[in-house]
């Protein structure tokens, strides 16, 4: 059973109207989430080579995605000492995929010196440490970049609604550690640890439209996740920093 975050998402106006609106207005969206739209993401080409920077807002508009705009991202999977996977349910305030269940943490490295560092994907791992703190309240010292295993990259595209979507090359980061959690309710509606069997049940429920799962988590779960999960103590064999899996 997922644990709801301490406070509800009060004052959130939903996105249903967005699909019908030709011009992009953020007036109806959550104020805190709108502020994050000014963050600068790292623009890349299809081979994950840096070509510039643009705002989170521009990177997530379907009108730009349709023109090929692509940015760098990451997905963190934290497993506890019992080998259960920490899931989060995105808050209703989120602009893309509100209320959807997903892996532990998904976000973007920013166009800053520390998060642009490409050697050993250090910039991406620093960004992951930052967002684990911001979203889940995990103390920075509890999950350091060197404790994250960078497995591989996945390139995917998905629409959230008529206006917003995702188009990312996503770095997959695995961590096995017991951590302290204090989720931000503006980011996370609920969270839970699941076994493989429990996740399989959730995936079946999603197929029956009984709950919603983010498209990237669904893709990863249907392809690689369970094999990696079976080999948490021996992940080196799956590390592939050359190939980008197109999904």
TrEMBL record:
<dbReference type="GO" id="GO:0006695">
    <property type="term" value="P:cholesterol biosynthetic process"/>
</dbReference>
<keyword id="KW-0152">Cholesterol biosynthesis</keyword>
<keyword id="KW-0443">Lipid metabolism</keyword>
<keyword id="KW-0460">Magnesium</keyword>
<dbReference type="GO" id="GO:0005737">
    <property type="term" value="C:cytoplasm"/>
</dbReference>
<dbReference type="Pfam" id="PF00293">
    <property type="entry name" value="NUDIX"/>
</dbReference>
<keyword id="KW-0753">Steroid metabolism</keyword>
<dbReference type="GO" id="GO:0004452">
    <property type="term" value="F:isopentenyl-diphosphate delta-isomerase activity"/>
</dbReference>
<dbReference type="InterPro" id="IPR000086">
    <property type="entry name" value="NUDIX_hydrolase_dom"/>
</dbReference>
<protein>
    <recommendedName>
        <fullName>isopentenyl-diphosphate Delta-isomerase</fullName>
        <ecNumber>5.3.3.2</ecNumber>
    </recommendedName>
</protein>
<dbReference type="GO" id="GO:0046872">
    <property type="term" value="F:metal ion binding"/>
</dbReference>
<keyword id="KW-0752">Steroid biosynthesis</keyword>
<keyword id="KW-0413">Isomerase</keyword>
<keyword id="KW-1207">Sterol metabolism</keyword>
<comment type="pathway">
    <text>Isoprenoid biosynthesis; dimethylallyl diphosphate biosynthesis; dimethylallyl diphosphate from isopentenyl diphosphate: step 1/1.</text>
</comment>
<feature type="domain" description="Nudix hydrolase">
    <location>
        <begin position="69"/>
        <end position="219"/>
    </location>
</feature>
<comment type="function">
    <text>Catalyzes the 1,3-allylic rearrangement of the homoallylic substrate isopentenyl (IPP) to its highly electrophilic allylic isomer, dimethylallyl diphosphate (DMAPP).</text>
</comment>
<keyword id="KW-0756">Sterol biosynthesis</keyword>
<comment type="similarity">
    <text>Belongs to the IPP isomerase type 1 family.</text>
</comment>
<dbReference type="InterPro" id="IPR011876">
    <property type="entry name" value="IsopentenylPP_isomerase_typ1"/>
</dbReference>
<dbReference type="GO" id="GO:0050992">
    <property type="term" value="P:dimethylallyl diphosphate biosynthetic process"/>
</dbReference>
<keyword id="KW-0153">Cholesterol metabolism</keyword>
<keyword id="KW-0444">Lipid biosynthesis</keyword>
<keyword id="KW-0479">Metal-binding</keyword>
<dbReference type="GO" id="GO:0009240">
    <property type="term" value="P:isopentenyl diphosphate biosynthetic process"/>
</dbReference>
<dbReference type="InterPro" id="IPR015797">
    <property type="entry name" value="NUDIX_hydrolase-like_dom_sf"/>
</dbReference>
<keyword id="KW-0414">Isoprene biosynthesis</keyword>
């Amino acid at each position: 059973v997922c644990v709801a975050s301490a406070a509800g998402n009060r004052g959130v106006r939903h996105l249903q109207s967005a699909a019908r609106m030709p011009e992009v207005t953020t007036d109806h969206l959550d104020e805190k989430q709108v502020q994050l739209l000014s963050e600068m993401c790292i623009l890349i080409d299809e081979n994950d080579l840096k070509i510039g920077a643009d705002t989170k807002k521009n990177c997530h508009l379907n009108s730009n995605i349709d023109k090929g705009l692509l940015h760098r991202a990451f997905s963190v999977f934290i497993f506890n000492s019992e080998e259960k996977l920490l899931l989060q349910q995105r808050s209703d305030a989120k602009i893309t995929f509100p209320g959807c269940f997903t892996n532990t943490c998904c976000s973007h490295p920013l166009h800053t010196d520390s998060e642009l560092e490409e050697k050993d994907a250090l910039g991406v791992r620093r960004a992951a440490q930052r967002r684990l703190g911001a979203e889940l309240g995990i103390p920075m010292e509890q999950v350091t970049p060197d404790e994250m295993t960078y497995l591989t990259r996945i390139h995917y595209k998905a629409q959230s609604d008529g206006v917003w979507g995702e188009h990312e090359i996503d770095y997959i980061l695995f961590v096995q550690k017991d951590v302290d959690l204090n989720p931000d309710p503006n980011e996370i509606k609920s969270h839970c640890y699941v076994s493989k069997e429990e996740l399989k049940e959730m995936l079946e429920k999603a197929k029956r439209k009984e709950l919603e799962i983010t498209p990237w988590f669904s893709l990863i779960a249907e392809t690689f996740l369970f094999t990696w999960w079976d080999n948490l103590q021996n992940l080196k064999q799956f590390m592939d920093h050359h190939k980008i899996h197109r999904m």
